[in-house]
Amino acid sequence: MTHALLAHYGLLQNMHVVKPVPARDKDLCRFHADDYVSFLRGITPETQQDQLRQLKRFNVGEDCPVFDGLYSFCQTYAGGSVGGAVKLNHDYCDIAINWAGGLHHAKKCEASGFCYVNDIVLSILELLKVHQRVLYVDIDIHHGDGVEEAFYTTDRVMTVSFHKFGDYFPGTGDIRDIGYSKGKYYSLNVPLDDGIDDESYQSLFKPIMCKVMEVFRPGAVVLQCGADSLSGDRLGCFNLSIKGHAECVKYMRSFNVPLLLLGGGGYTIRNVARCWCYETGVALGIELEDKMPQNEYYEYFGPDYTLHVAPSNMENKNSRQLLDEIRSKLLDNLSKLQHAPSVQFQERPPDTEFPEADEDQEDDDRRSDDSDDENEGKPFVGRVKRELHDIESKDMDVKKEGAGASANASAMDASFAEISIKDSNSGSVAAAAPLPQPPPAAVDVKPQGNVTKPEQPASASDMNL
Ligand SMILES: [Zn+2]
């Protein structure tokens, strides 16, 4: 649905769409345990009855069900996020987008909240090959626990999560959780209550993120844009408008630091598509008309057929006093970080190599499932060169032909497409998009409750940070 809106709003012609190269076992094992990855690769709806012990051990089966194509779903969304990180590392674009990513609850050897593989941790590890410090920001209504846990003891990754706290899944994210050892003060948690509106949210988001950028000075930013923090979400209880949510994207973009935009939760799907479409426009610096263009999901957007929806009149339980206290506490913690940490220079690890598998959007109407064709096995660097060439020639085509959103509409028939973008207003944007059968994506469905501890919590030292 998001992709349909991007196509019909004419945004795809400002982007370079690239197909996600599936992450391989060894790519997933940079964070996840070998036996967990083997389990995900092998499990099927038919065989799951024979593996009850393993299902329980890896927390798969209830909130995180087994379904046909589960492993390839994981490989695809993880490949999109890591591929975006590789592009940012190569300065191929300023902003990379993977709305299918952002599955922030997955642990080293445990699925959680509809997240199986943590594409965010994997993409941050990729960014750390080039950048000394990476900032992670999470505006999903649920605490970004999997990412926080992975980097809890390092000062090379700062995690900042804004979330509903108190009798709410996953149960973690207390303001007093600030990181440990070298990571002390490098985890920030912003606990919020029901009904928060745009103004209250931004009264925390902007001053906190301004200070974070000042003291931490990240080389790259990963922003998880979970849309379950929007007003009217089926599982959420906040009252943000799409513009209020997108203000976070606009603000983080304004620092002109390489930016990876990821999806996440969101359970009123018409609003999820609206939100991520609008935020793609924000990434491109293009303001979209409220009146929605015709598209294949048009009937979902009635009765108004507009991009924006009004927030509700629900009570905002976040008092001014409470917000002031949270802000001062967090700014105080940040003031303890006077200088951005540095790391010793060391040889740069090799990029994650991806075999070639993208095509230009214009050609997509001929493509069905024949994904990895003649380019299989090519290293990524060559691919970047080719894509840069493609972008240049495509720019010329756009100039010749002028605008025309419909040219890309046929791409909707492809089973997957990936996007890369050339931004007319500022730098360039690249995005990976799953098409058009919505994968069973949707993150963190688990209602309230049980905070479980993984058998082997991942730590930054496991990953040699
Ligand atoms: Zn969520």
TrEMBL record:
Q: Where is the active site?
A: H105 (proton acceptor)
- In which compartments does the protein localize? Nucleus
Q: Where does substrate bind?
A: D63, G113, Y267
Q: Which GO terms describe its molecular function?
A: histone deacetylase activity, hydrolytic mechanism; metal ion binding
Which leading EC class covers this enzyme? hydrolase
Chemical reaction(s) catalysed = N(6)-acetyl-L-lysyl-[histone] + H2O = L-lysyl-[histone] + acetate
Q: Where is the Histone deacetylase domain?
A: 3-280
Q: Where is the composition biased (Polar residues)?
A: 449-465
| A Pfam family reported for this protein in Swiss-Prot or TrEMBL | Hist_deacetyl
A Gene Ontology BP annotation from the UniProt entry: epigenetic regulation of gene expression
Q: Where does a divalent metal cation bind?
A: D140, H142, D228
Where are the annotated segments for Disordered?
339-411, 427-465
Q: Spans of biased composition, class Basic and acidic residues?
A: 384-402
**GO CC, one annotated term:** histone deacetylase complex
Acidic residues composition bias: which ranges?
353-363
Q: What is its EC number?
A: 3.5.1.98
Cofactor(s) of this protein: Zn(2+)
What's in the keyword line of the UniProt record?
Chromatin regulator, Hydrolase, Metal-binding, Nucleus, Repressor, Transcription, Transcription regulation
PANTHER family, alphabetically? HISTONE DEACETYLASE 19, HISTONE DEACETYLASE HDAC1-RELATED
Protein family (similarity comment): Belongs to the histone deacetylase family. HD Type 1 subfamily.
For this entry, the protein name equals Histone deacetylase
